[in-house]
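Assess this one:
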Amino acid sequence: MDNKAMYKLSYGLFVLTSAFEGKDNGCIINTGIQVTSEPNRISIAVNKSNFTQEMVRKSGRFNLSVLSEAAGFDIFRHFGFQSGRDVDKFAGYQDCRRGANGLYIITAGTNACISATVEQTVDLGSHMLFIAAVDDMEVLSDDPSATYTYYQSHIKPKPGRQASSGKTAWRCTVCGYIYEGEELPADFICPLCKHPASDFEKIII
């Protein structure tokens, strides 16, 4: 079985934001779809290791900012390469504003925002699936939505030509995230795209 066939599925890219007990957070996800039109509902799947997943589950509310082809790598690094458990991702962050529901909307590198209230939660093992009623929607720009393919080809930095340090590292074959260390933990999850250790390749940097 060729697991890389899964990479052929079409994925969008989003910044999921939520808040709980006065703390805001956001993370990058790649699963957000409309599931019904009357009434209007969307679904998102979020890795359980994400702090934002906990906030959505506890608060029952979220905003989904749709990333566009105008997004730079910095937004992926900011919301995908660090945990909200360790840092306040919105401290000093300028490219956002509060939506009608009080949650943050990302305003740069996005083309739309959808605000929603969770109606159903399904435990899928590694991820939680949230089915939610759409409360509000807004178009932010006419830029095309970014896909994983576009991210790989145009946003993700290409490996530079620099002198090798001889250090062992592990590179995610999906998004390019690099973990430095001789051994990659078997239960490691990519902080950017949430793929498992089996999708990493050993490299020398």
Helices lie at 51-59, 73-80, 148-155. The two ends are 31 Å apart (CA to CA).
